[in-house]
# Entry
Amino acid sequence: MNKLSKYYELSASADVQEFYHSRGWTDGFPIVPPTPDAVAACLDWVNMSADELIGIEPVRERPVIAEKLAINAVMAGCLPVHFPAVVTAWSAMLKPEFLLHGATASTGGCAILVILNGPVRKEIAARSDFNVLGSSDRATSVIGRAIRLALINLLEVSPGAIDRSTLGHPGKISYCIAEDEEGTQWQSVAETRDIPGDVSAVTVFAAGAPRQIMNEWTTKPEEILDTYAAEMRANMRNYSIWSGNYVVVIPKQHRDHLQSAGWSKSDVAEYLYRTARIKRGEWSSVGKGSVVRGKGDLEYTALPSPDHLLVVAAGGPAGGFGVIIPPWLGTKSLAVTVAIGACVDCAPPGNA
Amino acid sequence: MTIRVLNPTSEANPQEIKPAVRLTTLRGKTVGFISNGKEGTAGFFAHLDRLLRERYEVANVVLHMKSNYSAPAEQSIIDEVKNWDLAITGLGD
# Structure
């Protein structure tokens, strides 16, 4: 039985839906009724008490506790096995360097991209191949949705309230991917960020919408990556020139060419660091000449350094496509990686 | 048959904030601006500065700019607010 949250006795499933919708507690889709038993099962899975503090949103000093996250996770469709990823994502989002308040309030309209690494991907049956940035599977869909529902309900990140996005993008519904670690020789994103390979981890990133590229007409690493770099430069010209973390999602077809040529993730990052650059004067070609201000020869890099690039191996097996995912606002918000602390390979309490 | 469901919101009671005493006049007062530093703020605050001095006979206008327009103002700016009679924080895009 929950100890903290107010409860309601409602007479039917339809009543539950209208009760929650009418109070602004949903994202517009139907929710799973957050019953005390379902919420308790999530808390049991992570061995957390209802009032355990996950973190404090630093700007508005709002505490986030486990029971409230569990309620929103259940509403999103999460099973207990999904809950460790939700808790860990939130603990990462609440780090000061993530600047959660700015990222969720900004007119820029970014969404929180969640990248899953390690054994947890298999535990929750997350997919990393077909339609990886869409609704590729149950686990990533509900984990991403849980992030958003908790933002709405715990920090008032509703459109027009804290969320002042001019446009937003569809990733705000759910934006969670699992890396295809079995389909690559590369280190995982988490490993490149100092998490051991056998440890599950979550990376969060204040992310713009994905920008898809295509190049099926070469096998040379440099030429493949030139297309990714061109899209990063386009983002710098057309959206924001400020350098920060970028994500590139590289599906198998491109990955095979890169790996066959012996390119590692750090080689990819080094190449894109060198090539994804523009001169401030290029703003003139996209209607922003008024802010060049005599500094047209000043060069800007998309990445402050190569290690700001997060290379994700994911996507379906065929197609010379790839994606760049730009940062919300340069280095104002940094990607954060946190290891999942709960033992996701353990049997749930009572089944041991 | 009924179903018991839980409240998903923080249920926290917002801390009550007592508004500052309202000014009856701006004449001779010190007004502080906290700008978010965006492009559009330069013209906006410059115009407001003129307006306050010329029309309302404000004695001093102090402008401070945040280093990160999406983060709270630095403590050094907050510390100075006590020296002002009125603070105006503005968003400019």
Notes: The interface with chain B takes residues 2, 4-13, 16, 19-20, 25, 33-36, 39, 59, 62-64, 68, 71-72, 75, 99, 101-103, 105-107, 149-150, 153-155, 291, 329, 332-333 of chain A (CB under 8 Å). The CA atoms of residues 180 and 307 of chain A lie 20 Å apart. Chain A has a mean pLDDT of 95.
